[in-house]
Amino acid sequence: MREIKFRGKCKEKWLYGDFIHQDKFNRAMIKQDNYTTVVDVNTLGQYTGLKDKNGKEIYEGDIVKIEYIQTTVIKAVIKYKRASFYGSTFADDWELDEYCEVEVIGNIYDNPELLEE
């Protein structure tokens, strides 16, 4: 069973832990080490349960480099849709599976320039 946890950004710092709730003011709260902190709801992302080739956890909103069957290399954004996580590119959606070698190279919040062609 995969670990359910989230990340969100509070000012310039990423927090990782349990998603508590989103209030009527559109603020999200994450509980980390017995402390609850308000994070920017727009940066809230769920852990996919997967790690990249370097052992780094992959979250929604991460930008990854996907090498598919050692021939095709693309950049994609991790998204959640229809109860599964996938890599979304401008042209296609790629399922994350055992045939892919994935490496997190940034995220859409801190590194949007990585999406520029």
Overall description:
With 117 residues, the protein is mainly β. 0% of the residues lie in helices and 62% in strands. The chain has no helices and 10 strands. The chain has strands at residues 6-10, 13-22, 28-32, 35-51, 57-59, 62-68, 72-81, 84-88, 93-95, 100-107. The strands form 2 sheets. Strands 1, 2, 3, 4 and 5 form a 5-stranded antiparallel sheet that branches. It has a 5-stranded antiparallel sheet with strand order 9-8-7-6-10, with no helix packed on it. Strand 7 (72-81) and strand 8 (84-88) form a beta hairpin. The chain starts with 5 loop residues before the first strand and ends in a 10-residue tail after the last strand. The model has no long low-confidence stretch (mean pLDDT 83).
Write the layout of secondary structure elements.
Blueprint: E1 6-10, E2 13-22, E3 28-32, E4 35-51, E5 57-59, E6 62-68, E7 72-81, E8 84-88, E9 93-95, E10 100-107
Antiparallel strand pairs: 1-2, 1-4, 2-3, 3-4, 4-5, 6-7, 6-10, 7-8, 8-9
Brief summary of the model shown:
The chain is mostly beta strands. Helix content is 0%, strand content 62%. It is built from no helices and 10 strands.
The structural domain count equals 1
Span from first to last CA?
37 Å
Shape: globular
Largest sheet: 5 strands, antiparallel
Q: Please report which band the strand proportion falls in: under 5%, 5-15%, 15-25%, 25-35%, 35-45% or over 45%.
A: over 45%
**Uncertain regions: pLDDT < 50 for 5+ in a row?**
none
The counted number of beta strands is 10
- The total count of helices amounts to 0
Order of helices and strands: EEEEEEEEEE
- The structure class reads mainly beta
Portion of residues in helices?
Answer: under 10%
The gyration radius over C-alpha positions equals 15 Å
What is the residue-averaged pLDDT? Answer: 83
